[in-house]
What does this fold into?
Amino acid sequence: MESRASDLGDRSAPEGEPHETALRRGVFLFDIDGTLMRSGGAGAIAFRHAFREWCGIDPSRVPVSMAGRTDLEILRLTLDAVGAPYPRPADRRRLVRIYLDHLRREILVPERAAPLPGVVALLDGLHARRLPVGLVTGNIQPGATIKLAAAGLADRFDFGAFGNDREDRDELVPVALRRLRRRHGAEPRPRDVWVVGDTLRDVQCARAAGVRILAVGTGFEDQLALESARPDLYLTDLSDTARVLRRLGATMAAEAPGP
It folds into this structure.
């Protein structure tokens, strides 16, 4: 289930500006759940129903923390917990189809899916500045699309890396940046790349890739734990768009010198 940048739109650099120079103005990679939107647990509910329908075992009896994990990791840990073998490709595809069917129903429960405060205005601000905006999410790509569409955000992202690309979230940022490079013909400097996320695993995956992290306290992660992880920038939420853009600009400007 490879996800291609072209599936998520194609926004180029401002006219007349070299791609490499444009990328130095900032690249932003957003997590979805708890960062961009709330989904009322639709993914977890859909997975529980799908897993039970697929193999007859209720995964809620061996709860696995989903925060910040990829869908593939959640599946493997759940299978390990119930003592079941990892499925063959055909069985795995069947599980994915069942999961997506349940997710489409669950995400449409009234008042379940919505953008978090400030997200739409922030995305508007980044796009107005013609900055590359992508995704780094543990969701498989079709699940990400379903969730974002329910929140009215499906057409906001130029490229991304998803939970079906790698099981280890730490490997997703390089995947996203390779897709960005294929589109722009250039690669951003690590200090110009921001991961925006709400969990300690978002912080960890940014650190693993050597890029910056904006941690937001809008998910279920303990805020003190997030701050203690010493992200490059921590905000309780993204509701004050001007302040978020100002803080990001000031942080980037602080290390502007250099090739």
In short: Residues 211 and 245 are 18 Å apart (CA to CA). Confidence is low (pLDDT under 50) at residues 1-16.
